[in-house]
Task: inverse folding
């Protein structure tokens, strides 16, 4: 439980957004976990006094919050940037209907792709859907602007996007907090003429939508600010760029008026015209795409104003905003000679990608799968393994190299459908339990319906592990039963730690697919190691031990199994790093010389915890 | 007010985010603004991670290239991977004597000596933070030992007091690791 006793707290930007929503009176909050958005819903769930849920995917999360907002509630939905693509369908229509209460959609974008497949700039969704986008620049402004987003939404009865980025959501800093308000739930509002989007209603809504859009254009003016330093130079800084601009101005000692843009969509036209009319040169600083820049150029053309204007010609649109980018832009704009002196990173460093955790059950799943492919007489280099989004995407790394594609949630089964159609070779779709429910279901129905031969291997670790072990529907819904309900005729469960029987089951499933030309589902079921550790006293775990007289230094355990807790000694024999080993025992069947065993006492219900 | 930029690098699971939290909280007790940009997501799975800590009158969270006042490696190799944040002129490099092997087959790792060789000509300090942590009774306190060492190097002078750190450290074993690290003689490599 979170108690909001002190007013100044040191928190993450995402926590600041959650606490801002509470201060605005949020009553219903939904989301699907995804970096860098996860802590928003996590914080609201911890607070415990409003309704908040992890939904099965972003579209359902969106619709749940929207359903509350059209009945008068103050609602929030949060997701990462690519998650909003999943919810794009209801997003576009929500702008037509508007809402009764307040509806804030948090899109956490990830420029530089710290943990994402692309760095799309979701401010475009605002232009596309005619939904205003509010953009904070630090944790404090994230808190205050969340409150403003609810106010604006409620005032104009329209959804509002709050767009943050990694360096807002995952920056920890001091935040002066506003106290929480009583949550505003709705009351049943039946208004089918507005909310049933048959063409007749939608056409009327379209006119209303544009009316609201005009009003929004006026309302946003007050959320932006011009800092007049009596200069000919104007810097227009959107969102996170504002903080960087302030620091660069202080550091380089240059003079400019600064226009802080908190609403990149729509831009505050009056304020911008006023600022530009007093300037001879303008620099637009924004992260990502030239969204403010396009709108300003549009505005200036309409007003017949010509002014020296710079933006993306001086600031790279690749990757996140940095002071270095601004130093470069300032050096051109102000004609400064800025020399950055820094050391070169040596070229010969060993790579260090993140890896599957010690005790991860699905390290074994990948090993079992690769052996099963050979046993089923398929050619490993001609077998397409269609991957998906989750920890197990790390199976792309050596030694597994067991992901030939991974593009979006649920893509494993969807892409496998096409792989078979193009090549005629049987693909293997590898998908996690949470992702299976997120958007694997409809792709699997497609495979059944079109009789597409494929093996679907569900790596069920009983959670959404990648983002911090949030609960997954697999705890309540049996994946095998669901697959059966979708018409899958071959369903098996395996325990990945039971290597011999898993290899046998997987190769039989592959043979069955080959012979029967339809999809089969195998569920590899074992709990995420981090989730197991949450339920035991960590100081008292069993440990793997290598009997050195039996170890031949064959390197299988550290080079082919690659558990981070097994390390090579100078004589190539293996030893266990006791700080990393959690005593799962997965390495025992891997050693051909039976040199590894478990020592120490297993905590209470240890074996049951792994197989819940 | 002066600003200090500290980049702390290492690998997932070493408590780097916690170290950032402790500096931020200690800064709060000393009424000094601290912004910490954290790496989440893939971080705890043993990959390379870092945090940017900016202390003082700052509005943006990332340290520019070459502008780290302190470049700290909780794992020694990761100092090299983040070297572009350092400059020969004004960066102090602090290295924990710990080299972790990446979880990939047949990767040749650099020895501590090879790492130090690549850093010749820079201001480098070595500390065995893992050993201090074990002696302090908490093997996970290597991150705090590094903070104690940074404190003796003067990284927080005029910005964050020792009392503030002790208040932010919370656990007895953390305070012990912090204080033990301060008793080590500062010796430039």
Result:
């Amino acid at each position: 439980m979170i108690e909001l006793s002190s007013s100044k707290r040191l928190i993450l930007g995402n926590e600041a957004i959650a606490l801002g929503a509470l201060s605005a009176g949020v009553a219903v909050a939904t989301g699907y976990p995804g970096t860098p958005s996860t802590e928003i819903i996590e914080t609201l769930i911890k607070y415990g006094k409003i309704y908040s849920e992890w939904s099965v995917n972003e579209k359902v999360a969106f619709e749940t919050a929207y359903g509350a907002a059209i009945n008068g509630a103050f609602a929030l939905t949060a997701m990462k940037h690519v998650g909003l693509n999943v919810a794009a369908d209801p997003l576009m229509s929500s702008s037509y209907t508007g809402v009764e209460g307040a509806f804030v959609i948090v899109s956490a974008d990830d420029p530089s792709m710290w943990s994402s497949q692309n760095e799309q700039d979701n401010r475009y969704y605002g232009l596309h859907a005619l939904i205003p986008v509010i953009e904070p620049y630090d944790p404090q402004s994230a808190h205050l602007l969340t409150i403003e987003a609810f106010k604006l939404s409620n005032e104009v009865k329209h959804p509002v996007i709050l767009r943050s980025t990694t360096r807002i959501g995952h920056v920890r800093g001091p935040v002066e907090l506003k106290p929480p308000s009583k949550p505003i739930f709705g009351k049943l509002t039946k208004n089918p003429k507005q909310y049933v989007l048959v063409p007749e209603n939608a056409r009327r809504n379209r006119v209303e939508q544009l009316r609201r859009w005009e009003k929004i254009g006026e309302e946003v003016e007050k959320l932006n600010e011009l800092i007049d330093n009596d200069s000919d130079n104007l810097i227009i800084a959107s969102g996170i760029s504002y903080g960087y601009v302030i620091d660069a101005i202080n550091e380089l000692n240059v003079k400019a008026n600064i226009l802080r843009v908190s609403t990149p969509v729509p831009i505050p036209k009056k304020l911008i015209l006023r600022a530009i009319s007093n300037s001879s040169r303008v620099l637009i600083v924004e992260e990502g795409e030239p969204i403010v820049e396009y709108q300003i150029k549009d505005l200036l053309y309409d007003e017949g104003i010509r002014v020296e204007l710079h933006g993306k010609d001086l600031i790279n649109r690749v990757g996140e905003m940095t002071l270095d980018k601004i130093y470069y832009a300032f050096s051109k704009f102000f004609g400064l000679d800025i020399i950055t002196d820094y050391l070169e990173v040596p070229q010969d460093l060993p790579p260090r990608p993140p890896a599957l955790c010690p005790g991860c059950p699905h390290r074994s799943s990948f090993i079992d799968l690769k052996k099963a492919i050979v046993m089923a007489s398929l050619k490993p280099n001609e077998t397409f393994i269609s991957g998906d989004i989750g920890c197990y995407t790390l199976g792309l790394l050596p030694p597994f190299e067991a992901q030939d594609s991974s593009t979006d949630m649920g893509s494993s089964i969807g892409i496998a459908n096409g792989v078979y159609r193009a090549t005629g070779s049987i693909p293997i779709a590898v998908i996690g339990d949470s992702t299976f429910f997120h958007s694997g279901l409809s792709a699997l129905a497609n495979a059944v319906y079109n009789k597409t031969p494929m093996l679907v291997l569900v790596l069920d670790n009983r959670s959404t592990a990648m983002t911090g072990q949030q609960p997954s529907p697999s705890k309540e819904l049996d994946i095998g039963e669901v697959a059966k309900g979708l018409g899958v005729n071959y369903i098996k469960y395996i325990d990945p730690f039971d290597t011999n029987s898993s290899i046998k089951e997987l190769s039989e499933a592959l043979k069955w697919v080959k012979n029967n030309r339809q999809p089969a589902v195998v569920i590899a079921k074992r709990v995420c190691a981090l989730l197991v550790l949450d339920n035991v006293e960590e100081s008292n775990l069993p440990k793997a031990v290598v009997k050195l007289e039996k170890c031949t230094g064959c390197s299988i355990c550290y080079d082919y199994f690659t558990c981070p807790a097994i390390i090579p000694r100078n004589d190539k024999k293996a030893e266990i790093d006791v700080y990393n080993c959690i005593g799962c025992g997965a390495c025992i069947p891997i050693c051909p010389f039976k040199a590894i065993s478990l020592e120490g006492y297993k905590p209470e219900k240890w074996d049951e915890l792994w197989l819940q | 007010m002066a600003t200090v930029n500290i980049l702390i690098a290492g690998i997932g699971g070493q408590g780097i985010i916690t170290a950032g939290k402790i500096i931020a909280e200690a800064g709060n007790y000393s009424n000094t603004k601290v912004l910490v940009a954290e790496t989440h997501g893939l971080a705890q799975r043993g990959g390379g991670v870092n945090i940017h800590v900016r202390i003082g009158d700052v509005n943006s969270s990332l340290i520019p290239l070459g502008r780290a006042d302190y470049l700290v490696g909780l794992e020694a190799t990761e100092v090299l991977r983040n070297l572009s944040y350092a400059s020969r002129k004004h960066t102090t490099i602090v290295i924990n004597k710990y080299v972790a092997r990446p979880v990939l087959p047949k990767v040749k790792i650099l020895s501590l000596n090879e790492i130090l060789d690549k850093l010749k000509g820079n201001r480098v300090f070595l500390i065995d933070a893992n050993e201090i942590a074990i002696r302090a009774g908490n093997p996970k306190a290597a991150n705090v030992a590094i903070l104690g060492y940074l404190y003796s190097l003067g990284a927080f002078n005029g910005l964050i007091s020792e009392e503030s750190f002790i208040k932010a450290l919370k656990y007895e074993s953390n305070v012990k690791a912090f204080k033990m690290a301060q008793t080590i003689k500062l010796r430039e490599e």
User: Anything to note?
Assistant: DSSP finds 22 helices and 24 strands in chain A. The two ends of chain A are 27 Å apart (CA to CA).
